[in-house]
Design brief:
Elements: H1 3-10, E1 29-35, H2 39-52, E2 57-60, E3 76-77, H3 84-104, E4 111-112, E5 115-119, H4 122-137, E6 142-146, H5 147-153, E7 169-173, E8 177-178, H6 181-194, E9 198-200, E10 205-212, E11 218-225, E12 228-237, H7 243-250, E13 257-266, E14 276-279, E15 284-288, E16 294-300, H8 312-325, E17 334-344, E18 351-354, E19 357-358, E20 360-364, H9 374-387, H10 401-404
Parallel strand pairs: 1-2, 1-12, 2-9, 5-14, 11-19, 12-20
Antiparallel strand pairs: 3-8, 4-8, 5-7, 6-7, 10-11, 11-12, 13-16, 13-17, 14-15, 15-16, 18-20
Helix pairs in contact: 2-6, 2-9, 3-9
């Protein structure tokens, strides 16, 4: 149990300290400017301070802390990916997540549930077996379970053959977990601010100062905002769905498209579903929160648009497939619905590392799996910014791979339709 929770419970007055200091003026210059105050940007600032002692850092967000995709996801954490590069990367993130509550002295409500990716066809069974073998090769707990065993493990599901997609088996990933996404964002924010990192909310980036570098290249030297221009030694953008817009300001293109991804929660129910259940064929994923809500999501919208509006079409399609999996929830009412903006790359893997602009770095292309990568992104971004060298963990996700045709190919591990 985090000591902060214990102290809070035993203290008569229940004092709640301010998580972030009062808003301050922008300094004229910072060693590092982080564009984006979501989980990845805040984690980068935190690890810069904790691991490398670099605190002359500014985090800029045009809205409020965690108001973007960090606060709009379904909080699933896993490492059962398809490629060796992805498996090793996300496994480090899961390891870091397990210690975050103690690192922050804050309860992030981390809860291991077991993650089941359902297979409804023979080809899906082969894919789950493939993923299980790749996972086990790197020491990650994943295995293919067939229908009879799955019925014992997750008896709540509908195993009838009289449905469109009968359940044939699943990839079982025991370390699969959920956590409170807001707590993760605020834990990183509070930890960074405590170490003198400046976090500036309502600070929108309008452009960058770019000068000629040695030779024929270009170099970033400053960031233009609605509150003035800041000199910057290094810049990294961590802005999720706005990645293409921000990179355009810096003068280079990213190979991605931005598409809304919607989700919803039901009214609280008595606990009945401990597992995290995903179906790529049905385009659904569901878990039950600690408050009893069913947290549900599905495929991305079929078109690209920079909006976070909800739609009736998504809700109708999702509910139809949810009722195929869990027919007894037909009378359960929805509590709320929302959307985030996913930035999808051609190979469904992220883009991390250097860009054509010297001292300008990128953390983008997360699609539907950015939350689970929060700790490892922060850790390795900080290492890269502090040392000037790209860590081996994130090297496979370089922007250059699209030029060199060295794609990673994580589409088979996304678990939802795109």
């Amino acid at each position: 149990m985090p000591f902060g929770l214990l102290k809070f419970g035993l203290n008569k007055g229940h004092p709640v300290p301010r998580a972030l200091p009062a808003e301050s003026d922008l300094k004229d210059s910072y060693d590092i400017v982080i564009v984006g105050g979501g989980g990845h940007g805040l984690a980068t600032a935190y690890y810069l301070a904790v691991d490398h002692g670099i605190t002359n850092v500014a985090v800029l967000d045009k809205g409020y802390i965690g108001g973007g995709n960090t606060g709009r996801n379904t909080a699933i954490i896993r490492s059962n990916y398809l490629t060796p590069e992805g498996v090793k990367f996300y496994d480090e993130s899961v390891t870091l997540y397990k210690d975050l509550a103690n690192d922050f002295d804050m309860n992030i409500m981390y809860s291991e549930r077991g993650h089941y990716t359902l297979a409804h066809t023979d080809s899906a069974i082969r894919t789950m077996r493939w993923r299980a073998e790749v996972n086990k090769h790197f020491g990650i707990e994943s295995e293919l379970v067939l229908r009879d065993e799955l019925m014992r493990m997750v008896p709540q599901l509908n195993y009838s053959d009289e449905v469109r997609y009968p359940i044939m088996g699943a990839l079982y990933h025991a370390p699969g977990a959920i956590a409170r996404h807001d707590a993760v964002a605020w834990g990183y924010a509070a930890g960074a601010a405590m170490r003198s990192v400046h976090i500036h909310q309502n600070t929108e980036v309008h452009g960058f100062e770019i000068t000629k570098a040695n030779g024929s290249g270009q170099r970033v030297t400053g960031v233009k905002t609605n509150r003035g221009t800041i000199k910057a030694g290094k810049v990294i953008q961590c802005v999720a769905g706005m990645s293409g817009v921000v990179s355009d300001m810096a003068g280079f293109k990213l190979p991605l498209k931005t598409i809304p991804l919607q989700a919803c929660v039901s009214q609280p129910q008595k606990p009945f579903l401990d597992a995290i259940v995903v179906s790529g064929s049905l385009h659904v994923y569901v878990s039950q929160s600690s408050r009893g809500e069913l947290v549900m999501g599905g495929s991305t919208d079929p078109y690209g648009v920079y909006m976070t509006r909800s739609s009736l079409d998504f809700k109708e399609g999702l509910m139809m497939h949810m009722l195929e999996l869990l027919p007894f929830i037909g009378e359960v009412k929805l509590l709320r619905q929302w959307a985030g903006m996913t930035d999808m790359t051609p190979d469904f893997a992220p883009i991390m590392g250097e860009t054509p602009i010297d001292n300008y770095y990128v953390d983008a292309g997360w699609g539907t799996w950015g939350f689970k990568a929060t700790p490892v992104c922060g850790k390795r971004n900080a290492e890269m910014l502090a040392t000037g060298k790209v860590p081996d963990t994130i090297a496979p996700f370089a922007l250059q791979r699209f030029h060199d045709f060295k794609l990673v190919g994580e589409k088979g591990a996304a678990s939802v339709g795109h």
